[in-house]
Amino acid sequence: MEQAINWLLGIILFFLVWLFILFVYLTSRKAIENSKRRKIDYYKEKYRENMFRYLYTGQKSKQLIPDHPVKFLALEELLGDFADVAKGGDLEQRMKAFAEKYFHEEYNKKLVHRRWSVRMNVLYNIEAFQMDTFMGKLGEMYEGRRKISESEEIQIIKLLTMFDHPKLFDYIVSSSKKYADFIYRILFSEMSDPTFYYFLAKFHTLPVSIKSTIIDVLGIQNRLEHVKFLTEQLKQPNDELRIRTLKALAHILYPMPIEDMEKHISSRLFEERIMALKICAAVRKRDYIPILISKMSDPIFAVRKQAGYSISRYPNAREIFQEIIDTSTDTFAKDMAQEWLERGIIHGNSTGTIS
Fold first, then answer.
1. pLDDT in tens, 28-79
2. Domain total for the chain?
3. How far apart, in whole angstroms, are the C-alpha atoms of residue 340 and residue 321?
4. Residues 159 and 148: beta-carbon distance below 8 Å
5. Which CATH number characterizes residue 295's domain?
6. In a domain, 78, yes or no
7. Structural domain for 285, as ranges
8. Closest by CA position to 313, among listed 279, 351, 342
9. pTM of the model
10. pLDDT 10s digits, 225-274
């Protein structure tokens, strides 16, 4: 029994010593990190004015040379602070020149660092400082992406888009990896016009997921110059592409001819009918009113609700709803019109939101 107690006490003592050592280690490490943080903040304040003068006037200073590691981190953070508000050709060019001169060599090493967080931080800084001299290196990394994480891969393809890499089309289209819609949306939103137009020229060769994103971006960015292209996509046999196109045209406020509107408003797909109704809500042509009234009797509740919402965008919405109540023989239509009147939500000339 005594031996067992001694054995148990020994184990307890061992863990106490281990916990004490761990506590000392963590406390020391925290103290070192706090000291380092104070030095970084000190240098940032000390050289902030010098950095400001360099970026805004071009006045150089030997004090801005990162001649030791802590000062390097301070100047890196300081330049990052200015990058958040850097606007204008000369200012951006000076920021980029400074980063290329003093950070390039270190970043080149850190891109292959064993720690993921270090590699990601470098990729974010390359974006912030617009360091397009890394374009070749990043292209090589993307082509050998089995060696990098998914988050690195996404950040790299964003950078290759930003820098307009010559193989960008192949990287996006031929990739065996399919990204989420919002990633493609970011890529096409940040793409240069020449590259974007190249994708448009090759539109018929693209997979549906990328076609859908291009259509979305044209709508979100209100690219009126591409209305003709969008209306051509309404002939697509693919249901998803037609629906996406209608949504884009609603964003652009495209006044669709009544004969085309009738075609989509009578679609077998309730989603397509809803999107056509959203165009009616956005444009508010008087010619659409009979169509909207007819859709108040649609067998699908979501379509009837959208028809009611679309009518509510018109200046004479209250009169239209009252007419439906007084003259319609359809119970669904009467109920929906009554619901909108009871809500008291008659939007009139407001523009509303398309979702």
1. 677 766 666 788 888 889 899 999 999 988 898 899 998 888 999 999 999 9
2. 2
3. 8
4. no
5. 1.25.10
6. yes
7. 265-355
8. 351
9. 0.80
10. 999 999 999 999 999 999 999 999 999 999 999 999 999 999 999 999 99
